[in-house]
Automatic annotation (TrEMBL):
It comes from Actinoplanes siamensis. It comes from the Bacteria. The chain crosses the membrane at residues 36-56, 68-90, 96-116, 128-151, 163-184, 204-226, 238-256, 263-281, 301-334. Coiled coil: none annotated. The keyword ATP-binding does not apply. Residues 347-377 are annotated as: Disordered. This is NhaP-type Na+/H+ or K+/H+ antiporter. The lineage of its organism: Bacteria, Bacillati, Actinomycetota, Actinomycetes, Micromonosporales. Residues 356-377 have a biased composition (Basic residues). Keywords: Membrane, Transmembrane, Transmembrane helix.
Amino acid sequence: MKIGAPGRLLLMTGTAAAGWLVSVTAGLQGVTGSAAYLGIAGTLLVIGLYSSTYGISTGELRAGVRTVVLAVTVGVLAKAALIAGVMYAVYREPRYAVLGVAVAQIDPLAVAAMSAGSRMSARARSLLAAWAAFDDPITVLLTVYGAAWLIGGPIVGGGATSALLGILQNLALAAAGLALWTLLRLLRRRYDGRAVDAGEILGLVVLLAAAAVLSLALGVALLGLFYRPALDRWVPRITQAAFLSACFLVGIPLAAGIEPGAGLLLGLCAFGAQVVAGLVIPARIGLRDRAYLAAGQQNGITAIILALLLEVAFPGTVGVVAPAILVVAVLYTASNALLDSGLRPRPRPAPAIVRPPRRRRPAARSARRSRRPPAKR
């Protein structure tokens, strides 16, 4: 059962409210700095990143690779710089700039939900799906290394403080995954059965666990492109469960308070930055697709989990990011509803049925009939 944007918004808000209620009643505000809390948040982030690239069609990705590369590099960097610049100009605190980077990505789950009933072309759908999938790891890297630069150390356990070392670790994880997947493909040609299926799933669990411990976001996204066991039925369910779990975890630090003004500004900046990026990114799509691309901003599991991770280094982060996510969700829902209503063809009135007038017999003909002699008997 697919949930639309309004239902998703209500579900997200209700789950976060449940976490807030549990935090208030049980006094759990101090657990956000614990190793267990960070470990759960890191695991949920890995699940979200893997699912974001698991469902991408590699054929569609190759068809628009140039536009996708521009979107996930120049587009993501431009959006992050725009949001961070506005937040820093208003508050004059570096931590608000990092928060701007954390919400610069597009949520792949929202993109999938929108594309299901959207009037976008296939090219625009594949572009937005790839954009949403790959800007997640780029945003994670920018946020993690930006925060590490500000506080002088990593914000997650085991994370590399050097960007070059971090990239090498991510590539090493992807290379290990590729070697393992190739070996499993060779075994499948000879021994096709449940043992190979179990080996594929076990290998994936080991790779994702290593990525969670070492905080290898980019490597996880690369794994999703080729390491694909037969989990089409389970990946969406697991991702949805991870999303709701992250929403519940967000509600725990919300008990310490929120900053509605900063959250409103952050949400407006995030949505506005996507409008700018969607209009200027070069792509061979029509005006209608441009409008949907510009209104495609939606934050989800990545922004939520980044807020949880940043909460330890910058207390009060969730109190700003959570309202911002809510603002973006409302703008997303309203703008796409307006686009759908404006682009839906108006029903034309049925043409009136005009019946032709009944033909009357000529008077002369009827007169001739009356002058006919009677028939002989």
